[in-house]
Amino acid sequence: MTEEAKNVDIVVGPANHLGYSSFQLGGFEFSRDEYFVHIKWPKGKHVMEIDRFLRAMVRDIGWGFFYGWIFFDDVFGTHNHYGTVDIFAGAYDEGCKAAGIDYLETFTSDSVSKGFETISKNWINEGYDPLNAPMETGSPMGEKTRESDKPLLRNFIAAKRMLGLKGDVAVRSDETGHPINRAFADVPVDNPDIEVEPGFEGQLHAINLFDHIARSDVTWNPSISSATRNSLCCVTSEEHMLPVIHGNDRNEWFFQLSDEIHWKVQDKNTGRPRGIIVMKAGDVCAMPADIRHQGFSPKRSMLMVMENASPDLPELYASGKLAPYPIEF
Ligand SMILES: [Fe+2]
Question: C or N: which end of the chain has fewer Cβ atoms within 10 Å?
């Protein structure tokens, strides 16, 4: 893939009558009107709600294209090869493939990242933040007003020590200025009791994780992440629907910490239905490596996700050397 990857700049076209520019990245053309994005490629075109498109695009950039596939909807999305990225249209949709209108082009990650950022900045007006839950932000619809000057992405603040221990540089939940979200008003946020054996003072600490997650102002985006070698753990608050359909290239473990999420699970390559999983507080599941899935959270909920980031996993699953699920019952 890498030798064919295009390292190109996005081409910015003139603004339309609503004030929005159109763009061209390789064989793909993007334009928007008041309600929709219009995507064209050789032999095909597609239309998608602008809200859905922007919520997916901003997360795709922020997650560094994440693991495997990010479907913005059933037709359009990206596939991460960790250094290069495919942008595809219809390449994982049976109908588009049968009609011969499927298309895929490989770029350097940098090209796609910069390109998507350019589109997002031009198309996001002040008052709208695609990382917020739909009920907690303005609308992306209508003509261009003024470009938002809020940062497109949220930066991570790296902790040096356990949160709350003397010398940690992370901002603690009660110092962020973020209030407890309306959906978590009934969540106990008292701090744990810590009893340290003499001689270990200042080395042991504990936090109330619910207190941190309850203050998150973004949805479907990590609030806290920890990395131990290739073992990643992140906690998030989820409301409305996961703005992308994620195609796994490895197993992914979900721990439902509060409330419930309904997961729609499909075959990764065809989109055929594989199942619906309703996860309630306390439920744990392993999403297999050969599926795509989208979550629906009717009320804001808390989810913990664990990923094995070992770089050799996608090939082991793709070649069938590893079964797509973690355990044989
Ligand atoms: Fe996933």
Answer: C
Cα→Cα distances 124→10, 21, 113, 119, 222, Å: 17, 12, 16, 9, 22
Cα of 11 vs centre of ligand 1, distance in Å, is 32
pTM of the model as a whole: 0.92
Tens of pLDDT, residues 191-227:
899 999 999 988 899 989 999 899 888 899 877 788 8
The Å distance, Cα 239 to ligand 1 centre, comes to 16
pLDDT tens by residue, 104-160? 999 999 999 999 999 999 999 999 999 999 999 999 999 999 999 988 888 777 888
Question: Domains in the chain, ordered, with CATH?
Answer: 2-136 (no CATH), 155-207 (no CATH), 218-318 (2.60.120.10)
- Cα 258 to Cα 239, 293, 324, distances in angstroms: 12, 20, 27
Expressed in angstroms and rounded, the spacing between residue 293 Cα and the centre of ligand 1 is 6
Quick one: tokens of 139? Answer: 């609308």
Residues 294 and 245: beta-carbon distance below 8 Å = yes
Distance of CA 295 from the midpoint of ligand 1 (Å): 10
CB 78 within 8 A of CB 112: yes
CA of 152 to the centre of ligand 1 (A): 23
